[in-house]
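FORM 12-B: Structure-to-Sequence Request
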């Protein structure tokens, strides 16, 4: 990746209402370009080559400016796609933004980053896109027995709970409690 490719991409984004297709590694390649330019500038400075250092810093400034414009244009297009409900030409990092926008538009709880990654992996494995319909991240449960604190997969604590408590818990924890007959799922939808 270089400034010429960034400029060409910016021109493609400006000339079309659709998202220009990107390589899945596009944003990582840009980050690598930034690191390389910074490293070259620092190396030039250490060698006392101020003109070369200035050139690398100028190139870095241009690359960052181009990238900000590309991101701004792509974000506008992604918002439009979210309102239309159709993901198109999105790479993984943009799919996460799209999922968050869809949840926001549909007034659903915002998906957690881990949940987005799981959804993404399921889509890749099956080749089928999983719709972002009305999915509850948390559900209500009636606790049947006293339960000390419990931890989820990210080591977040919940509880302690007493028998008879009505609580909301993540599905992952609630499912385990129901399987162990320690809680009962309560439907709170009207």
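FORM 12-B RESPONSE
SEQUENCE OUT:
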């Amino acid at each position: 990746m270089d400034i010429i490719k960034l400029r060409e991409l910016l021109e493609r984004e400006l000339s079309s209402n659709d998202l220009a297709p990107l390589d899945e590694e596009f944003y990582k390649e840009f980050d690598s370009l930034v690191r390389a330019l910074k490293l070259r500038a620092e190396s030039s400075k250490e060698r006392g080559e101020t003109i070369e250092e200035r050139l690398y810093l100028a190139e870095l400034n241009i690359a960052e400016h181009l990238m900000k414009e590309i991101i701004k244009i792509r974000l506008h297009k992604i918002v439009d796609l979210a309102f239309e409900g159709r993901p198109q030409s999105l790479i993984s990092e943009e799919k996460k933004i799209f999922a968050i926008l869809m949840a926001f538009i549909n007034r659903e709880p915002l998906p957690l980053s881990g949940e987005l990654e799981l959804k993404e992996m399921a889509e890749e494995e099956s080749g089928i896109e999983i719709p972002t319909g009305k999915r509850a991240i948390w559900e209500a449960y009636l606790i049947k027995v006293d339960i000390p604190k419990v931890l989820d997969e990210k080591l977040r604590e919940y509880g302690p709970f007493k028998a008879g408590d009505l609580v909301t818990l993540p599905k992952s924890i609630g499912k385990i409690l129901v399987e162990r007959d320690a809680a009962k799922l309560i439907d709170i939808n009207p």
